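Team,

Forwarding the record for the chain on the shared tracking sheet. I've put the sequence and predicted structure together so nobody has to dig through attachments.
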Amino acid sequence: MSESNIEVDKKDDHLQSSITDQAPEEPEPKVPQMKESKMKETQTTKIETEEWEREHSSTSSFCPPQGTVNKTITDGVTLIVLWILLWALIGQEVLPGGNLFGLVVIFYSAFLGGKIIEVIRIPVVPPLPPLLGMLLAGFTIRNVPILYKFVHIPTSWSSALRNTALTIILIRAGLGLDPQALKHLKGVCLRLSFGPCLLEACSAALFSHFIMNFPWQWGFLLGFVLGAVSPAVVVPNMLLLQENGYGVEKGIPTLLVAASSMDDIVAITGFNTFLSIVFSSGSVISNILSSLRDVLIGVLVGVVMGIFVQYFPSRDQERLTQRRAFLVLSMCVSAVLGCQHIGLHGSGGLVTLVLSFMAAKRWAEEKVGVQKLVANTWNIFQPLLFGLVGTEVSVESLESKTIGMCIATLCLALLVRILATFVLMSFANFRFMEKVFIALSWIPKATVQAVLGPLALETARVMAPHLEGYSRNVMTVAFLAILITAPNGALIIGILGPKVLDHSEETFPLKVELSNFHN
């Protein structure tokens, strides 16, 4: 090798060694050190937390209070501050004897009554519906003179609240209807929706005419008050059976849930028709024609408003669910109260029903969020509704003879309903005991009766005071119907269902969306 080559190699080696010396050293991996430091920090924080808890364990529940005690004190102070603010703004209305004070007393008493019924659990017995406690709370206030002398609710207030509650019921019925489920169930659902309600209404008219000496138009009005089944009782119990796999193979829970909304619609429509006939001075033919006019107007306005809410608000807007729920609620309440104000008593409910049904059909699965918000609104109006119904029933004004006639009329009409339901289900593919179960499950009454019974009484007070006796008897029958059929219906469904329905290990979701329909 030549000297020049040796010199080049030495220069290369020297260059590489200098580069190697100048290159920064690679840092050692610090992942284990980071994990160790985090573990040390976590252990230190845990130790500090334990030391703080030990130091404050003796006073943690008292100074300052935590958990439920803290929440109760916070809510109480908030209510007191709000009450003081209202007192400064509107004065005597929030003091004992004022209208707002009475409304607050009824609301919280009914709310507490419902919670007490929820807490009461008897082994092997299904839970009772909370609305029973709400009803009894209002009844107690009405019949305890010390309490009732401080509770005064204007007729206009109670009427507006009941109409709003009816609107929410109809919105939930419209949103709960699923065209696909109704198409799947076909004739059996229609028979269960229309048949028992119409036959019970006709039989109640017949029995009340001969037992209670009701005129025929008042008898049919009473019949349609009684004709509605209560989704507030039927639906949660059907959901419970569905979750446990009872009757799912033949679709019995789905059938009863889907038909309960349609049943209410038939009863409310019939009631509005006969309410117009009873309190109108024209001939029967003119009253029927005016009722048909109200129906036509209600359907047309409902279609127009339903098309509007299908596209407004648009899908690109923020808080879409909240906007939709607020728009539907405000439009439907305005339609019902507005129709009542201008004399179209049968139109507002149909507007609400058609509007909500068309909106739900367009929104498809997106309607679940709207249903939840509407259900939350119902949680506010439910105690008010049943509390106000309870305050309308006075023990002093009831006679034993009147109570006996009311119970006899109610029981006979219920018997006809049970037999009619059994016969109508005989054309479907159900076993004997399944038909018995469906017939007995179709008797609970609550929500619609709580709205329609007082509505007839208030209408008579305003338009025809000489008819108040009939309307008060209608109110009494509605009250007794809720008191008797709601708890017994819930018990029958809960006890009889697991014994007579076929059990399936695999459960299926209901065909009808029923978000929070149990309140």
